[in-house]
Amino acid sequence: MFPVAFHPIYKHPLPEGHRFPMLKYELLPQQLVHEGTVSPNAFFEPGLPDLQHILGVHKKEYVEALLNLTLEARAVRKIGFPLSAELIERELRLAEGTRIGAEKALQTGIAFNIAGGTHHAYSNRGEAFCLLNDQAIAAQYLLNKKLVKKILIVDLDVHQGNGTAEIFQHNEKVFTFSMHGKSNYPFKKETSDLDIALHDHTDDSKFLEILENTLPYLIQTQKPDFIFYLSGVDILASDKLGKLGCTLDGCKKRDEIVFSLCQKHEIPVQVSMGGGYSPDIKTIIEAHANTYRVASTLYL
């Protein structure tokens, strides 16, 4: 069974306006265990990270301001959460969960973070509920430890991975690929190594066609020995913050394409959950659970 980072600290109280989006972090593990997709002993609870791993991609001044709760009010507003010690601890453990998961994936082939996908966090600032860029931190850690030589980041969230693009803009060992809604946040995009901006209401057929034509080519040309996959389910037509037109089945087939290619080419993959903001929490849980169901079928 593949390892999954679990974060009980998400149960800490949040302001009312932020409560609903966080429910999935509590409900998804319960659903996965209830249906037998993931066994209870597959979950691991990450501790606090070595700050040197965080400083591998984030500026020291920014990290210190987070830890000391001294960010300027304007910077806090861009993040979207009120700053607190509990929030910072949560973000640190989240990043550590992805780092540990990346190490575990080298042995198991695949590992998940029940949260993560904080791709709007830049090297020197946070945005859009993202404070520390979990997959960027883990990617740089693998490179620093010489555990891998070339990394491909596959970001299929509806929003462009602007922070990830900025962090690795001059790093030839990391190829950033973001396929996202053209008219979605962020409205000022950064430049990934490959950006594919999709028109509003792009449906399953077009989305999957583009992915099937692109990802095999990237694997062939970039020859990554590790993949980070951001599996946001805000590509659904029902999503409140997305503008694409994908269905639950299309979202599931997207995951099948990614995981099948990773298996075919024997490339370890770490998966972070990313966004999902449909009005019905059942839709969000079903879409995220499908990602784990696909993996449980392929990675027996």
TrEMBL record:
<dbReference type="Pfam" id="PF00850">
    <property type="entry name" value="Hist_deacetyl"/>
</dbReference>
<feature type="domain" description="Histone deacetylase">
    <location>
        <begin position="25"/>
        <end position="283"/>
    </location>
</feature>
<dbReference type="InterPro" id="IPR044150">
    <property type="entry name" value="HDAC_classIV"/>
</dbReference>
<dbReference type="GO" id="GO:0004407">
    <property type="term" value="F:histone deacetylase activity"/>
</dbReference>
<dbReference type="InterPro" id="IPR000286">
    <property type="entry name" value="HDACs"/>
</dbReference>
<keyword id="KW-0378">Hydrolase</keyword>
<dbReference type="InterPro" id="IPR023801">
    <property type="entry name" value="His_deacetylse_dom"/>
</dbReference>
<dbReference type="InterPro" id="IPR037138">
    <property type="entry name" value="His_deacetylse_dom_sf"/>
</dbReference>
<dbReference type="GO" id="GO:0040029">
    <property type="term" value="P:epigenetic regulation of gene expression"/>
</dbReference>
<protein>
    <submittedName>
        <fullName>Acetoin utilization deacetylase AcuC-like enzyme</fullName>
    </submittedName>
</protein>
<comment type="similarity">
    <text>Belongs to the histone deacetylase family.</text>
</comment>
<dbReference type="InterPro" id="IPR023696">
    <property type="entry name" value="Ureohydrolase_dom_sf"/>
</dbReference>
<dbReference type="GO" id="GO:0016787">
    <property type="term" value="F:hydrolase activity"/>
</dbReference>
